[in-house]
Amino acid sequence: MYSESAVYKRTVFPNGLKVITEAIPYVRSISLGLWVNVGSRDESLESSGISHFIEHMVFKGTANRTPSEIASYLESVGGILNAFTSREQTCFYAKILDQHLEKGVELLFDLAQNPLFDPSDIEKEKGVIIEEIKDIDDSPGDLVHDKFARTMFGNHSLGRPILGTKTTIQGISRRKIVRHTQRYYRPGNMLIAASGNLDHVKLVDLVALHLDQKSPEIVPDGRRKPIFKRERKVYKRETSQTHVCLGVPAKEFNDPSRAAATLLNSLLGGGMSSRLFQELRENLGLVYNVFSYLDFFQDTSIMGIYLGTNGRNVKRAIKAVLKQIERVSNEPLADYDLDKTKEQLKGNLMLGLENTSNRMSRLAKHELLVGRYISLDETISSIDSVKADEVVEIARELFQKTKYSAVVLGPVADGVLSVFD
């Protein structure tokens, strides 16, 4: 029987900012995140990459701190400060000792509310991010995922690279940056999530001290739901391996079938004992790396599979993947395999939640995706309740031949995509 001793609490300020916490009294750390509900999905074609650009720029100085002061403020007391941008969120986060909570809150709000956006720094940072784009371009194992997103989502903004392109980055101006932050960096579009040895009321009081107490300003939800169109593409390149991504549209995060889909993902490609790993690497020796994944967004998701192999073996490797999918979609799932996958999934979840950073991210993502906290007990119960035929049913529903999109990147022979016909 699994149980959790952490205490979840939630407060919403009159201006819309939410504070959600999970108190864990037996640790000494606190993971603290300031989440802004904006990412590459919210950008126009011309401003592609601007959310990620802003994430970089706030570290270049605020009205209260120089870049070096930002870097040393938490590091000087053993803390960690960082940030990331995804397709739907931007997050600034800190991991600190519990005694330094006030320092963490003050710094995160300084970054979000008082960035300078100095024009000379903007020009310098363009060069930095263009080098980051080149780095992705030189890493085919990463680049194939960007190509796959474009293939799955087409012209929808979810299909654009989070970093933008060299052209769009060059076109970013201070005026565009300020306009973007004024639109999205509002309290009603922000969330504070924290996990660790903390007191919820104390955190709320600290947030109130630093929060820009404006009246509610709701950011219009301009996100369009993507319409998937099956597409398969080959990008020929001289690389050491050929990289393959294939997948299908899946369900929303709050769909009742989520637990069954998560078990399906784990069964197919969730580790060394998964069917794809055992077949393609251990039995056939075709790959070094193969895995499946579920990527959830506000209103949709993708179930994808990645592998890297020799260009001569691409067809054989894809056929092996499709054979395993056909098997899980048509053969009854043995009780032993179901129970083993459930225990693996629950074990991975429990081990991940020993890290306060993972717990903080889980809090935030639940709030942003479904607007409520999903307890560990509820998650475990949903996994335990899945029946074998439900896993087979969701596999059959998702992995229909007419739904597959795919990208192959690297040295490959013509006609490789005929394997899907």
Question: What is the compact description of this entry?
Answer:
The protein is of the alpha+beta class and 421 residues long.
How does this structure look, described?
The chain is α+β, with helices and mostly antiparallel strands and 421 residues long. It folds into 2 domains: 7-210, 2-Layer Sandwich (Cytochrome Bc1 Complex, Chain A, domain 1), CATH 3.30.830; 232-420, Cytochrome Bc1 Complex, Chain A, domain 1 (2-Layer Sandwich). The chain has helices at residues 50-57, 67-75, 101-113, 119-137, 140-153, 166-170, 174-184, 200-210, 258-269, 275-283, 314-330, 335-352, 356-370, 376-384, 388-398, and strands spanning 7-12, 18-23, 29-36, 80-85, 90-97, 190-196, 232-235, 242-250, 287-296, 301-309, 405-409. The chain is globular and about 60 Å long. The model has no long low-confidence stretch (mean pLDDT 95).
Number of helices: 15
For the largest beta sheet, what order do the strands appear in spatially? 1-2-6-3-5-4
Taken in chain order, the helices and strands follow as EEEHHEEHHHHHEHEEHHEEHHHHHE
Estimate what percentage of residues fall within beta strands: 15-25%
| CATH 2nd-level architecture of the largest domain | 2-Layer Sandwich
Structural class: alpha+beta
**How many independent structural domains?**
2
Could you list the spans in which at least 5 consecutive residues all have pLDDT below 50? none
Can you count the beta strands? Answer: 11
The whole-number mean of residue pLDDT values reads 95
Based on CA atoms alone, the radius of gyration comes out at 23 Å
> Could you name the CATH homologous superfamily of the largest domain?
Metalloenzyme, LuxS/M16 peptidase-like
Would you state the CATH class of the largest domain?
Alpha Beta
What CATH calls the topology of the largest domain is Cytochrome Bc1 Complex, Chain A, domain 1
